[in-house]
């Protein structure tokens, strides 16, 4: 599990850092991450409306960006769904 956490943190920082700040994901960075890293877990990631709805659902402070804790909410949701813990 430690290596999985390491990968999640490094991927977040890599995608977040594409615009200069590795602390938050902009909408475009988030869409790029979802399209390339989660193509089988997030359907229609090319659709801007899908990305907007997904981002809005986890952007707790409504600042238009995702910090790591907000991003972690998505990872938790996807893991729950993948593991069959959510019906």
Automatic annotation (TrEMBL):
Q: List the top taxonomic levels of the source.
A: Eukaryota, Metazoa, Chordata, Craniata, Vertebrata
Cellular component per GO, a single term:
perinuclear region of cytoplasm
Tell me the organism.
Oncorhynchus mykiss (Rainbow trout)
- Which gene produces this protein? LOC110536110
Q: Which CDD domains match?
A: S-100
GO molecular function annotation: calcium ion binding; calcium-dependent protein binding; transition metal ion binding
Does this entry carry the keyword Metal-binding? yes
Q: What sequence ranges are listed for the domain EF-hand?
A: 46-81
What is the name of the protein in this document? EF-hand domain-containing protein
Which keywords annotate this record?
A: Calcium, Metal-binding
């Amino acid at each position: 599990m430690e290596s999985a956490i390491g990968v999640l943190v490094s991927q977040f920082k890599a995608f977040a850092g594409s615009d200069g700040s590795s602390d938050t994901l902009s909408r475009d960075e988030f869409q790029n991450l979802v399209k390339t890293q989660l193509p089988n877990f997030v359907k229609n990631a090319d659709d801007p409306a899908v990305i907007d709805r997904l981002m809005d659902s986890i952007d707790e402070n409504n600042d238009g960006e995702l910090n790591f804790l907000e991003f972690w909410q998505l990872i938790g949701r996807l893991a729950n769904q993948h593991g069959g813990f959510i019906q």
